[in-house]
Each structure stands twice: as C-alpha cells, then as structure tokens.
Amino acid sequence: MDNHDDPRNGTVQPDSKKPKLTHPISSHELLHEFSHHQTAVARINNGSFGSCPRSILTAQTTWQLRFLQQPDDFFFNTLRNGILDSRKIIKNLINADDVEEISLIDNATTAAAIVLQQIGHHFSSGKFCRNDTVIIFHCAYQAVKKSIEAYVIPVGGSVIEVELPFPVNSNEEIIAEFKKGIERGKINGGRVRLAIIDHITSMPSVVIPVRELIRVCRENEVDQVFVDGAHALGSMEVDVKEIGADFYVSNLYKWFFSPPSVAFMYCNKNKKLNDVHHPVVAHEYGNGLPAESAWVGMRDYSPQLVVPSIMEFVNRFEGGIEGIMKRNHNMVVKMGVMLKEAWGTNLGSPPEMCASMIMIGLPSKIRVMSDDDALRLRFYLRVYHAIEVPVYYQALGNGERDARDKDGFITGYVRISHQVYNIVDDYNRLKTAIIQLLQDGKICSELPKE
C-alpha cells in the first residue's frame, strides 16, 4: 500500500484559503474511487482521455436521473442554474472578471470551431485580405488544423506553421521560432489575424511560454490570440488575466476529473467579441455564447453539472487542486528522470517546461524510425505488457538539437503522465519492458502491428 500513499498524500501544505480537510482521502478510498479502471494495466496516459472518479460518476448519474424523472421541470427550473453554478466555480478557478466570460462546451475542438468560424467569416466578408494568415505550431492538435482547413482556407486565408524545437532546452528557443513565423506572416503586406498557441502541446508535450508569445503578438498587431489549453486545467495554474489571451479553452475531463465531455471557453469581455457563436445553431442563437452553449439541443448535460462535486473531490486532498498539481508534476519528473537514467537517454524538455506529462527518449537501439514504428511499439506495450503510454517519433534533421545516446541518435520518445491513481510500479513496468526489448535484440519494425 505504500506505493499508493507516497504520490497522493504528500507534504504539500494546505492553502489557508482552502476549506479545511474534514476527511482527507485515504489510500483505500482512493483505490475505490478508481476501481472501475481495468485491473493490472499500467495506465500512464492520463493525458489522452483523463480519469473520472467513482464519486463523480455517481454525481453524474444523479443528475441524469433527475432529468429523466421530470424532463420539463428540469429544463425550465434546474438546468440553467446548475450550469451557472459550474461556470461560477470555473470563473474563480481561472481568475476571470465576469461569469459571462465563461461558457461550457464539449471540448477544445468545439472551441477551435467557434473561433475559426468567426475568423472565416471575416475573410469571406472582406474584413480580412487574402494575404492574411493564421499562425499555429506545427504540432498543434490535428482537429485544430482541420478546423483551419474547413473554415479559413476555402475563403482565402492561409496558415503559417511554426516548428516547435524538440528536444527543447529553453523558452527562448520557442520564442525565437515564433517570432520568425510572425515575420513570415507579414510578407507581401499580409497580417497575422489569429495566433493559436498551445499552453501545453500534446505530442511532444511541452509547456509553452504563452504570456511571452502573446506579448509578441500584441507588439506585432496580431488581431486575436486563442490559447488552446486542452491539458491545462488541473495540470497547471491558469490565470486568464495574467495570460492575456482573447480566447482560452481547457478540457475538464483530462486533468480535472470530470466525465467526458466538458470544457470551459473563456472570451475576454474587454475585446467585445460579440460575433462568436456556437457551431450548433439552436434556440439561443444570438443571446451570447454562454447561453448558446447551455442549450444546443437535446443531449446529456450532466458533465457540465458535476463541477461542484469535482471541487468536493479535489478538496479531499492536501492543498486541494494546487496540491494535486504540485505532486503530479514532482512525481512525473521523478519518474521521467528514473526512466532516462535506466535507459541512458534524455528528457524532451527541462522539468520546468512540463506539467503533469513529460517526454523521455527511448534507446536508439530499438529503432523508432517512423510513425508506424511508434504505433507498433505502443501496440506491443499495450497487448504484451498491459502498459498504456503514447510513443512519439522525432525525425532527425535538427542539427545540434538531435539527441544521442551511446548507440546512436534518439528518434523515439514516450510521453508519460502522472495522476493521483498512479503508482511507482506503473513506471517500473515500462522501464523493464523496454530493457527486455533491448536484451532480446528486437527493433520496432519486427514487432506485431495492430
């Protein structure tokens, strides 16, 4: 049981502003909260789909039953107030000025559609010119790229993709590349109309210096900035006033324990962004994004209603959500360093540039030489070792940045996550599985394919 104690109930001092713990969560209770997870699986990929505790699932079921018992009464007298209660909690968590700046939507992909359909309208109406652009990082989430393809490219806009340095050593490297991208957007008299900046990139996983990049955007008269913080809430501090973006989105189901699927979207009221609309047009169209998002037709709204229950859950831990974030960061760094040293490789970024996920180089001898090799290794780890972890292929060609171990260039990385249910043995199993591959002399192209 000790393995369950250490990462969950550490020595983080509780914040005096937090409610005093009346019943700190025990190891037994924590095991019960996640007892619906498939047994015997080393689940070190919380970053993809998150994790919802049993008590929150129970609260969700209660909301669902309340609706089914009397749908009309629930719709007219309960739903809006319940969503408003959740929005008020999010407002305080992210230090927004006004609850009307907060909308609850399905996920970060929905937020991208909201922002990019607005940008597309500006192109089609002639407000923006054909030389004008949207700027993103090359590793931006694929659905965001698809939204640009759907809403912006057909009406004359273009996109600039900035290469994220990886492995990365400092914020300055990222800022320098971003500035180059901004300058490319000015060629032939064009303007960068929208910057989409990840707060934490997904693959590879790196915390981006968003405040500094937004300052660059303002200095270069970029019209709007949309921060995609899909992984942020519950993983790192989010203060929207300090960040200074026009739009900010973060999923609640990845690191904030909600059931799928709910995210918050922040729209800075000082920017008078009156022309943003939910992509699903329903009865509330034209009444503001919070109202439009609160009813997009008949669907399950229970994920939006359980935020008060999530706060009850996280406040059972020392330090509340801040304590959870600190312990997750410390543990993922500790486990990343352990794996790096065991394999003789490297970290994808300094510890201060990660939150609750970190990239670790794989030994060059197993030869992750393509995306297909990365998928083969991931499948092998899942099926033959019951380890769930993403594998990333990093092509060579970065000059001095290309990482090496004693046998050659490192072209494969794993992205490990740490959440409250993880134990040290999860990471030891990954360490052993990779070492076993080395001892057996196997390379990725020889592994079975899903």
From TrEMBL:
<keyword id="KW-0413">Isomerase</keyword>
<protein>
    <submittedName>
        <fullName>Isopenicillin N epimerase-like protein</fullName>
        <ecNumber>5.1.1.17</ecNumber>
    </submittedName>
</protein>
<dbReference type="GO" id="GO:0045439">
    <property type="term" value="F:isopenicillin-N epimerase activity"/>
</dbReference>
<dbReference type="InterPro" id="IPR015424">
    <property type="entry name" value="PyrdxlP-dep_Trfase"/>
</dbReference>
<dbReference type="GO" id="GO:0019450">
    <property type="term" value="P:L-cysteine catabolic process to pyruvate"/>
</dbReference>
<feature type="domain" description="Aminotransferase class V">
    <location>
        <begin position="85"/>
        <end position="270"/>
    </location>
</feature>
<feature type="region of interest" description="Disordered">
    <location>
        <begin position="1"/>
        <end position="23"/>
    </location>
</feature>
<dbReference type="InterPro" id="IPR000192">
    <property type="entry name" value="Aminotrans_V_dom"/>
</dbReference>
<keyword id="KW-0663">Pyridoxal phosphate</keyword>
<dbReference type="InterPro" id="IPR015421">
    <property type="entry name" value="PyrdxlP-dep_Trfase_major"/>
</dbReference>
<dbReference type="GO" id="GO:0080146">
    <property type="term" value="F:L-cysteine desulfhydrase activity"/>
</dbReference>
<dbReference type="Pfam" id="PF00266">
    <property type="entry name" value="Aminotran_5"/>
</dbReference>
